[in-house]
Amino acid sequence: MEAKAKLTMIRISPRKVRLVADSIRNKKIAEAVAILQNQDKRSSEPVLKLLNSAVANAVNNNGMEADQLIVKTIYVNEGPTLKRFRPRAHGRAYEILKRTSHITIIVSDDKK
């Protein structure tokens, strides 16, 4: 059985969030939480909160046991990009892209 949690429109670049997501893919929940708590990345905190939400969904909505769950799937998609401009020399404008991410975590109890 599976449970899912989503986080949308987070103001961190998808490339940076994928570094954290790749480190917990196919890990047990206790191991994934330990990895996220000890990682020195800004995106590890929202991913940890999202993982805890997915575990809570699994326990409360589907009646699964938290100690038997694994991170079955985690993926990071690109959200809309905020476009801003910065003044440069000779009256030019330099575009700044503020990227956003959509994160999805699926946890499973590994029973087929």
Topology:
Elements: E1 2-10, H1 14-24, H2 29-38, H3 44-62, E2 70-78, E3 82-87, E4 93-98, E5 101-108
Antiparallel strand pairs: 1-5, 2-5, 3-4
Number of domains: 1
What is the annotated CATH architecture? Alpha-Beta Complex
In CATH, what is the homologous superfamily?
A: Ribosomal protein L22/L17
Q: Give the distance, in angstroms, between the N- and C-terminal Cα atoms.
A: 8 Å
Q: Can you list the strand order of the major beta sheet?
A: 1-5-2
Radius of gyration: 17 Å
Q: Can you describe this structure?
A:
There is one protein chain. With 112 residues, the protein is of the alpha+beta class. The chain has one domain (2-108): Ribosomal protein L22/L17 (Ribosomal Protein L22, Chain A, Alpha-Beta Complex). 36% of the residues lie in helices and 34% in strands. The protein is built from three helices and five strands, in the order βαααββββ. The strands form two sheets. A three-stranded antiparallel β-sheet has the order 1-5-2, with helices on one face. The model has no long low-confidence stretch (mean pLDDT 96).
